[in-house]
Amino acid sequence: MGLQWRDQLSVGNDLIDNDHKYLIEIINRAEASVEAHNRVKLSAVLDELGAYGKTHFEREELVAKAAGYPKADQLHESHSKLVADLARFKDGIGDTWNEDASTQFTSYLRGWLIEHVIKEDLPMKPWLVKHSPTFDPRR
Ligand SMILES: [Fe+2]
Question: Which of 5, 6, 64, 139 has the greatest number of CB atoms lying within 10 Å of its CB?
């Protein structure tokens, strides 16, 4: 079964939560391509994940700064590492594709998203909830 959004993952801002929900959707598509052993599809989905990840990270840094999160600058650094890490993962997929590799890919992708992308955002919540859930510094 694919990943599912749950309330505990909410950071208290709709813009960021909606991005995270969409990232989960992309990860689920990536996992489906892993299960289907479809490397071409996986590669395309990982490109989409990288591109949407970048858009999301920029948006998130903007929201964090505007919400007064004191560690907003460190977010950028950790985001750059996540982008580079994902690119390395994509390059390293390699030619062999056995059952072990499938399991590893799936746990890597889930870890990348849940452990690093979403759980590392949760410390922002006390600052984000001082604003409306619809807080959007671009408006
Ligand atoms: Fe995020």
Answer: 64
Distance between CA atoms of residues 115 and 125, nearest Å: 16
**Could you tell me the distance, in angstroms and rounded to a whole number, from the CA of residue 67 to the centre of ligand 1?**
15
User: What is the C-alpha to C-alpha distance for residues 29 and 33, in angstroms, rounded to an integer?
Assistant: 6
Q: What is the CATH number of the domain that holds 75?
A: 1.20.120.50
Scanning the structure block, which residue is given the tokens 């746990």? 107
Give CA–CA dist 132/70, Å, rounded: 19
> Could you list the residue range(s) of the whole structural domain that residue 99 is in?
9-128
Q: Domain tally for the chain?
A: 1
pLDDT in tens, 39-55: 899 999 999 999 999 99
Chain segment 69-96, per-residue pLDDT in tens: 999 999 999 999 999 999 999 888 876 6
- Cα of 12 vs centre of ligand 1, distance in Å, is 12
pTM assigned to the model: 0.93
Tell me the CA–centroid distance for residue 93 and ligand 1, in Å: 24
